[in-house]
Amino acid sequence: MEPIVHTVWEPVTGTWQYIVSDPSTKQTAMIDTVLDYDKDAGLISTASADKLLDIVEDNGYIVTYILESHAHADHLSASRYLQRVLSQRQNERQPLVCIGEQINQVQATLGQIYDIPESELHDAFDYTFSDGETFRLGNIEAQVLHLPGHTPDHVGYIIGSNTFTGDSIFNPDLGSARSAGKLLSLPGHYRLYTGHDYPPKERRGENSEPSGAIPYTTVDRQSKENKHVKLGTQEDEFVKMRNERDSTLSEPKLLRQSMHVNLRGGRLPARSTEGFKIEHIPAGVIRAG
Prior knowledge:
Elements: E1 4-10, E2 15-21, E3 27-31, E4 36-38, E5 43-45, H1 47-59, E6 62-67, H2 79-89, E7 96-100, H3 103-113, E8 127-129, E9 134-137, E10 140-146, E11 155-159, E12 162-164, H4 180-184, E13 191-193, E14 216-218, H5 219-225, H6 235-246, H7 255-262
Parallel strand pairs: 3-6, 6-7, 7-8, 12-13
Antiparallel strand pairs: 1-2, 2-3, 4-5, 9-10, 10-11, 11-12, 13-14
């Protein structure tokens, strides 16, 4: 059985957000959600998350999981805001906020760098998945695929013939893949839904998205066309390319703010922190502590 997949692009950070639902039971997962943040003004908004809530309400979905592919460094997670609102709407049937079990390693390393109290990292997520673990969306079995490389905690989610890859691979014309071996070994017709898209000029307007952003391609297409890791690419060649390319990249614009929220499992810091300006917190957005 195949799920219904809703794709929602957030253009400011280029993030693809997903709603995945079992059509027979309406049990649903949200994947890699975005809490809007204006760094200069210090304003937090739930506009992107509210679009997801509208889709859920319009379709009568019951959200049981809010899934993170990893601790994002380029956007704030809306997981706890969504959890609070959905719990109220679903008569206290609270969805679980989940991530890969190696998040502990990321929290231990980056928690020290960003001076996050250990008490705000402990049990920050409702559940952490191990590699190969399965769970159910109604009548559909989903599987967790550990995809370290981008981050140690990175996982993908296989639901039907769809794999939600996070940042482990991008669309073929962008490449930027890590941990691609596991993904390219999946059946050729499987769809690989990416965590981001930054469409180049020649692709804008190519499809129904005004930006030209594309949520997925197939394993077959990635294997033939991905400019960094198509079939035949040698490991030493890829490692050399990645090291050279990574050395030229600047850090994500929202790195500090994203880490403060996402390492806390989607909660804002309990107090103001250096470099994280917050002038307004909308109702329903949760602080740690």
